[in-house]
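User: Fold this; tokens only.

Assistant: Input:
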Amino acid sequence: MRIGFFANDDVGVRAVQLTLACEELDVVLVAVPEAGREETNAQLQAMAGDRPFARIGRRLEPGFVRHLRTLDLDYIVLAWWPYVVDRDVFSLPAHGCLNFHPGFLPYGKGMNSNFWAVRDDEPFGVTIHFVDERLDGGDIICQRRITVGWEDTGQTLLTRAKRELADLYLTLLPDIVRGQLTRSPQASTGSFHRRVELEAASELDLDAPTTARSLLNLLRARMFTPSRLTTPPPGALIFREDGETYEVSVSIRRRERDDQRSDTRKA
């Protein structure tokens, strides 16, 4: 099986490592985003070795697409890829184009699913799915639910999603080798959010009615650093008053029960 990788960040590094370690799979291309972290881009370039390696932007050059057509690809794998891929690319592989998505599809389509899962108390997890014309709407191959607790924030969910996606991909490798990936159409329910929605959702209206639950959910949801976002300040909710802007975050820690504290003292 001939695999072309569009790989980004630590998830991309781990996915390429796992694939290179599988003798039945042949990595024939590694592409990284120009705007990706230089550290991981350099790691991926080193891992590519003598294989074709490319740094590419949101819009692919025609020459690069023509080169993809010559590779006789069985799969393209989008491992934490930050850009939407056009049909002239995702339709090239014989067996399909796979995408790593940090959301429990059909919930969390689009961007920042870790934020919306906490704020709106909706299911969260990770999904590997086939790519088609619909944004995050292709058939599901496999997915894993991640439980969200009160001590979680947008950042803890993002970190866990990265780890779980790499582990989920590892379980999928035997099916990729056989070219026998299952596919299940997504339900018509779920949720979808665009990148620009996060900015409006990151500002607290001091006079708007709310509940303690909703406020705590919003505060901890916004405690993460979104990619390529400079305003509002990453990692915090903001509010404004008298011409000043304030940042606010929250820390939630589960208190041990009396019986747990007693057991600890006895030990």
